[in-house]
Amino acid sequence: MKVLIVGGAGFLGKRLASTIATQGGLHMGQVAQLTLVDLAFPEEMHKDGSFKCIEGDFSEASVMQSLIEEKPDIIFHLAAVVSGEAEKNFELGMRVNFQGSLQMLEMCRSRDYHPRIVFASSCGVFGGDVKQTISHTTGPKPRSSYGTQKAMVELLMNDYSRRGFVDARSIRLPTISVRPGKPNAATSSFLSGIVREPLNGQKATYPVQESAKFWLLSPKKVIQNFLHAANIDAGKLGDDRMITLPGITVSVEEMLQSLERIAGPKVAALASYEPDEFLQSIVLTWPPYFDTSVAESLGFVKDNSVDELILNYIQEEKIKLPNI
Ligand SMILES: NC(=O)c1ccc[n+]([C@@H]2O[C@H](COP(=O)([O-])OP(=O)(O)OC[C@H]3O[C@@H](n4cnc5c(N)ncnc54)[C@H](O)[C@@H]3O)[C@@H](O)[C@H]2O)c1
Q1: 120 and 78 Cβ atoms separated by less than 8 Å
Q2: Using CA atoms, how far apart are residues 247 and 148, in angstroms rounded to an integer?
Q3: Do residues 143 and 127 lie in contact, with contact meaning Cβ atoms separated by under 8 Å?
Q4: Active site includes 160?
Q5: Domains and CATH numbers, the chain
Q6: Gap from CA of 260 to ligand 1 centroid (Å)
Q7: Residues 120-148 pLDDT 10s
Q8: Best mutation site among 38, 64, 65 for ligand 1, i.e. most ligand atoms within 8 A of its Cβ?
């Protein structure tokens, strides 16, 4: 079986690739070829013999065409211009997030080739009334260009599946925390930074008040959910291919209290409030309350607590608690 990861050098793409390469986990068959495409790859990924890295812009027709000609059985579509960048650069977001994804679907349709596609959508497709509990039947109502682009692609994934052109599943990711490495251009970046930086002995800021709540999932569980989305039988999904992933509702205050329990008050005190109107205008429109019983009954998973989320990060990244 051939597997393609679009956006394979990203935070989640890289993890997904190494999980598939080392553990398999895909029920459709043995992985004989694992190909990743991204704008650029670090040297160590090129040298890793367990997958092939192709550098290119998937929204360019020639790049996507050569990938599609290989006829991968499963395509994980994770490439995106993330939320903050898509809001600041509208043309780039539309070209990559929307037109690139539409072109991928059209190339499959016009070649009469029907891969299974797992599309990384986002809970950013919801917005507005943050007091409302989002359920399986709540329709998208994005309040950002990124959320709008994701919602448009989800609808296309649904319709191309209904018509039998592809077999797609769109999983709506909560904010993934704690993300290792450096801050990124996602407007949710601070939701990792306020844990990661203090655990590294560094200061961090959050742009919203401590009472603000968010819908979170750990990197470990989201990778399990990507694999599950690829494995789930199409018959169980029917015509509705949009799955809002389970997560936990956590306030900034609860994250800092958990950090204090785990690493002590001096570490937690390294995070402080620094209001940012641009970030507030986006992240405070994301609903934090979800009823994901349908996704859970389909076998999608979540973390049990914010402590588990932080402890997982410390364990996975082998973080030594700062001595302050
Ligand atoms: N991490 C989160 O909190 C979160 C939350 C909701 C949704 N998502 C979605 O999950 C997916 C993966 O997220 P991530 O956190 O790994 O993001 P990321 O930014 O680390 O990875 C995305 C990758 O896509 C690549 N990419 C962008 N444009 C490209 C192009 N034109 N051609 C080829 N590659 C291109 C980037 O270079 C990057 O490596 C994204 O689609 C994102 O929108 C993530």
Answers
A1: yes
A2: 21
A3: yes
A4: no
A5: 2-174+217-244 (3.40.50.720)
A6: 31
A7: 999 999 988 888 999 999 999 999 999 99
A8: 38
Residue 216 to residue 194: CA distance in whole angstroms: 14
From CA 78, how far away is CA 129, in angstroms rounded?
Answer: 27
CA of residue 82 to ligand 1 center, whole Å: 6
For atom 11 of ligand 1, the residue with the nearest CA is 78
The answer, yes or no, to whether residue 324 has pLDDT greater than 90, is: no
Question: How is residue 86 written in tokens?
Answer: 């898509």
Per residue in 254-304, pLDDT (tens digit) is 999 999 999 999 999 999 999 999 999 989 989 999 999 999 999 999 999
Compute CA distances 77 → 10, 163, 169, 183, 311, whole Å: 11, 20, 10, 22, 29
What are the E-state strand segments in 114-255? 116-122, 167-173, 175-176, 204-206, 213-217, 242-244, 248-251
**Count of other CB atoms within 10 angstroms of residue 22:** 9
With 0.90 as the threshold, say if the pTM is over it. Answer: yes
Confidence of residue 89 (pLDDT cuts 50, 70, 90): very high
- Taking only the tens place, the pLDDT of each residue in 189-210 is 999 999 999 999 999 999 999 9
> Positive or negative CA dihedral for 302, 274, 254, 268?
positive
Residue 282 one-letter amino acid = I
175 lines ligand 1 (CB under 6 A): yes
